[in-house]
Amino acid sequence: QTLIGYPALVDRGDSVDLEVLDSPQKAASLHRDGLRRLFMLQLKEQTRYLEKNLPGLRDMAMQFLDFGDAASLKDQLLRVSFDRACMAEPLPATQAEFAQRCEEGKTRLSLLAQELCRLAGGILAEYQALRKKLQGLKNLPQAQREIEEQLAHLLPKNFIAATPPERLQHFPRYLKAVALRLEKLRADPVRDARWSAEFNPLWQLWLREDLKQRKQGVADPQLAQFRWLLEELRVSLYAQELRTPVPVSV
Question: Quick one: pLDDT at residue 27?
């Protein structure tokens, strides 16, 4: 018999193991976590420094309570900082490439962590301001439901680690667009309902396709692109003054 296996580094916390798996998708996913852990172990001094000196961590932890505790926040910030510093594609595949990536990452890890903390802090501050404003929407239940569903999908518990970096930088604008929608909603709820009638069929289509793919265990990059275009469409409909990086319409 011929058996085909896919090797991956597997994260064990204070070490990594090399394992052979039967699925290339599972191997690729586990390997990213294992390789990141290997970088953190190799750059242990930098890891310890960041664990103690992530800027603004205490204030962020208070604003993060809806998503998790301070340990979860710190873990996500560390993971994404190492991803940005060391895990650019193509991933290192040899000892020499790994050593070179360590040297490159070591010099910029602290700066990247600071940038990430500023971004995460801004997102969490915008989110908390929105939560307060949403409490005043009891008389407009449909709009309240739509916005809460949007926030739930945009900001799951692991949103810092789960969101591609190139998308996370747009989150402050997305949240500002929600705040502008709330302001306009009180002045003209009929107009808001008209925009929702245009937007919601596309949103429901994405929800169905996303659920189908997650059940099948596949990830279509075209569907992900569609999902982010929907977020830009919300900006275009509800907060045109914020502009979108690409033209987008229904």
Answer: 95
Average predicted confidence (pLDDT) for the chain: 94
Q: Which two tokens stand for residue 45?
A: 């001094």
pLDDT at residue 88 in the model: 93
Cα 226 to Cα 35: distance, rounded to the nearest angstrom: 30
Q: How large is the average pLDDT for residues 138-166?
A: 93
Model confidence at 64: pLDDT above 90: yes
Write down the residue that tokens 């929407």 correspond to. 137
> Which tokens hold the place of 64?
């993060």
Query: pTM score > 0.85 for this model?
Result: yes
**Residue (of 105, 165, 177, 179) closest to 136 by Cα position:** 179
For residues 26 and 10, give the distance between their C-alpha atoms in angstroms, rounded to a whole number: 11
Distances (CA, A) of 116 to 100, 185, 210: 23, 32, 28
Residue type (1 letter), 234 = R
